[in-house]
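User: We ran a pulldown and think these components assemble together. Before we commit to crystallization trials, I'd like a predicted model of the whole complex to look at. Sequences follow.
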Amino acid sequence: MKKDEQAHTLIDETIHQRTRLAIMSTLAPVESLDFNDLKAALDLSDGNLSTHLSALERAGYVTIAKGFRGRKPRTTVTMSAKGRQALKAYVDLLQSILDKTR
Amino acid sequence: MKKDEQAHTLIDETIHQRTRLAIMSTLAPVESLDFNDLKAALDLSDGNLSTHLSALERAGYVTIAKGFRGRKPRTTVTMSAKGRQALKAYVDLLQSILDKTR
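Assistant: Here's a predicted model for the assembly, 204 residues in total across the polymer chains.
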C-alpha cells in the first residue's frame, strides 16, 4: 500500500468528526429532518449544529432548505446523493479498520 | 438518553483521531511492535508517530519501552490492558453508530 493509500489517511475527516458522524448517521435512515428535530435528537445547541451542518453543506453532503410551515420558519436538512455515497465509503473503510481489532 | 449519554459525546477522542485509531488497530492483534515496524506499517514520520504515541501513553493505553537489540537502540510499543479495554469500548460504540447507517 502506498503512502497515500494507507487506510487511515483515507478517512474522510468531514464525516469522521464525532458530531458530524452523529448527524450523518441520524440522517441516513430518514434522508430529511427538520433542523429542530435533528437538534433535539442529538441534544446539540443551535450554534454547534449550524457550524457542523455548514461544514457538511460545503462538502456537498447535505442540502439545507429554509421555508415555512404555516407562519413558522422551518429549516430542513437533507442528505445528498454525494453525502450518502461518502457515508457508505466511510462506513466501509471504518469497518475494515475496526475488523482488524477483533 | 441524557445529554452526557449521547453516543457521539461518548466517542473516545484519544482513539477516534485517525492516526491513533490506525496505531491502536495495528497493535491490537499483536500487542507489541517495534517503533520502526509500526512506523513502516503506517508509513508515518518519526515525529508524527512519536506525537501520537505520547498521547496514547498519557492516556495509559500503551507503554513505551526503550532498550537495545545487540548494540542497536530499540523502542517497543505495547498495548496496555487499559488500552485494550478502551479500544473494545470504542469499537462497540462506533459499531452501534455505524449500524444506524445501514
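The first helix of chain A runs from residue 13 to 16. That may be worth checking against your pulldown data before setting up trials.

User: Thanks, that helps.
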